[in-house]
Amino acid sequence: MSQAATLSIASPPRAARRSNLGDMIFAGACYAAGALVLLLLGGIIVELFLGGLPAFRAFGLPFLWSTEWDPVTEVFGAGVSIYGTIVTAVLAILFAVPVAFGVAFFLTELAPPWMRRPVGTAVELLAAVPSIIYGMWGFFLIAPLMAQHVQPALIDSLGELPGIGVLFQGPPFGTGILTAALILAIMILPFIAATMRDVFEQVPPVFKESAYGLGCTTWEVMKGVVLPYTRISVAGGIMLGLGRALGETMAVTFVIGNANRISTTLFGPGNTIASVVALEFGESETDSLKLSALLALGFILFVLSFIVLAASRYLLRSRLKA
Amino acid sequence: MSTTTHPVLSPVKDAATAARLGRGRKRADRVARLLSLAATGIGLIFLVSILVTLFVKGFGAMNLSVFTEITRPPGSNGGLLNAIIGSLIQVALATMIGTPIGMLVGTFLAEYARGSAFGNVVRFVSDILLSAPSILIGLFVYQLLVLPFGGFSGWAGVAALSIIIVPIVVRTTEDMLNLIPNTLREAVFGLGSPKWKMIVLVCWRSATSGIITGILLGIARIAGETAPLLFTSLGNNAWSTNLSQPMPSLPITIYSYAGSPFQDWIELAWAGALLITLAVLLLNILARSLLRRGT
């Protein structure tokens, strides 16, 4: 099938010379554009690494876990923001995955056909809303809601429990790690839900029909046939959501509280790599150690997202081939 | 079927057990359906809540001066005109730069590099760039264009946005070209056409609606991008159409206004947020309906 694309055709010599030139130029442009994409990725890695090099040199490997961030004495560490990035992203996954699964289950198995497209589109539109809008919405609507209702309720109900109680203590500011994770969860929900829906739809109908023929309920078909059949792609979709959550900037900057400390409670303020870079960048001078530290943070974020996104693509490769 | 107490299992005790089991399974099914419905409801509630918040606060703050006045100090009835124009200029230029590159890469992947190792690497990298944090694109352009050329500029913002739009166009272009049957290509070759003519006059033309969909989705994405502009075009409170100077943009203005303590600035931020969201959602819906009609 694909040989057609590489067929070479013997044409009359005069026309051939002209068309060969056209072909060479066009093919050259296409190859150059392809190479440009590789250059872009290489350029991003190299520029971020070179920019962060002074900070890596000054602080060495402990930069990764040091929790200091003091612009006055010029001591910088990435510990708090790496912690905040990972905690908010993982919490967001914990919140988003069950909901996304529910949405995908509804869209593929339960919803009447006329409902699938509008509801599916509506969920996908959530992915189109710009990050900054989520930030404003989270800051002006969700954060007050958290402060007045959700967090006091959580403190009363879960705060007393031994062990996990410590996660739900402290003053209910509204902003903080938990709120940031919640907003992130809403933002990555459509990506995970859309991937799950697409892979659920690829399960051969005959498998499902056999299970129904044995007397399975819809839920048993989902649990026993669809999920096992698609589990690798589902994991890929979750990794895609994780990759997105790691690098979200504007929404998180609005609601995370922006403090350079690691709190035991989920209500405490924190920061993420992206929010630190976005906030502190304007206050750092050219060639300062602080700017270098921010670029080093960018490099670390890039490595993190690259690993997660590459894993996601690897897991989703069967879907991509189909 | 499992719920009826059909006397296949003859002993009475077994029939009762079967009925109980059946009821349990049916209950689990009902619970799962309910939870799934609730999850979908939750997802929709978020969308509705965002839209309602934007409409209520945005329309409340919307008036003519938003479109006729430029940004002013708090308390002096400013608007968003310069930010809107700045955004339009940067998004338009970025689309003009990024789209041809993205189309060429997509064409490369679909027509020249199907199954080749180099093509697979390019496809992989393009997909990574598609989901890579946009703030890092901003940092990259800062290192590449802002530091060496002495300052923030509209051009740097354009560069950052065009890098972001490329992988979106790549993905849709490749997908659309892959849908074209090879018999069509063979027919064109059979007429003695060179490959580039085959691609430009036949493949691109039959994939037009899909490619335009990709471009529209790309525009929708970069129109709302804020983080990469923080380090590139920076923002500007004055009237500025000079691309070698810092340039205002709607997302950046919203960002700085929404975080300010001044009520009239916050209201302007809501008006801007409504404008951007409406534009982005309309572009998305337009792109989707175009794709549906095209295929």
UniProtKB/TrEMBL annotation, chain B:
A Gene Ontology molecular function term of the record: phosphate transmembrane transporter activity
Membrane topology category: Multi-pass membrane protein
The UniProt record lists the keyword Lipid biosynthesis: no
Family: Belongs to the binding-protein-dependent transport system permease family. CysTW subfamily.
Protein name: Phosphate transport system permease protein PstA
PROSITE patterns assigned: ABC_TM1
Domain called ABC transmembrane type-1: residue spans: 84-287
Keywords: Cell membrane, Membrane, Phosphate transport, Transmembrane, Transmembrane helix, Transport
Organism ancestry: Bacteria, Pseudomonadati, Pseudomonadota, Alphaproteobacteria, Acetobacterales
Species in which this protein is naturally found: Roseicella aquatilis
Record-linked Gene3D superfamilies: MetI-like
